[in-house]
């Protein structure tokens, strides 16, 4: 999991997971550029419309909640260890 968080492009992912990560990046950074062709790419990796919907909901939720936290100045909770930290 750490390799995915560090750099998903070089992590050992399936083609479908790699396509989902690419979709998440595009939906996060360039949402206005997402087209039906992007969804067809996901379908080509075996995802059905329900899976695409669910993945998009999760991506959008994380984008939403981080923007709420950032916009309100919410500080990270100190009891949550940074990813990969053993202490």
Description:
The protein has 87 residues and is mainly alpha-helical. The protein has a domain of 60 residues: AhpD-like (Up-down Bundle). The protein is built from four helices and no strands. The mean pLDDT is 91.
Task: Identify the notable features of this structure and list them briefly.
mainly alpha, globular, single chain, 62% helix, 87 residues, AhpD-like
Radius of gyration, whole Å: 15 Å
CATH superfamily of one domain: AhpD-like
Unreliable spans are none
| Span between termini | 17 Å
- Overall mean pLDDT: 91
What's the CATH architecture of one domain? Up-down Bundle
Number of helices: 4
- Approximately how much helix is present in the residues? 55-70%
Layout of helices and strands, plus pairs?
Elements (H helix, E strand, L loop, with lengths): L1 H6 L7 H15 L6 H9 L4 H24 L15
Compact description:
With 87 residues, the chain is mainly α.
């Amino acid at each position: 999991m750490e390799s995915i968080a560090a750099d998903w492009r070089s992590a050992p992912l399936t083609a479908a997971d790699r396509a989902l990560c690419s979709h998440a990046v595009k939906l996060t950074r360039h949402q206005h550029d997402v087209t039906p062709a992007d969804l067809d790419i996901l379908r080509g990796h075996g995802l059905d419309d329900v899976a695409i919907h669910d993945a998009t909901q999760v991506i959008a939720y994380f984008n939403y909640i981080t923007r709420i936290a950032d916009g309100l100045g919410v500080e990270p909770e100190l009891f949550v260890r940074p990813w990969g930290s053993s202490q």
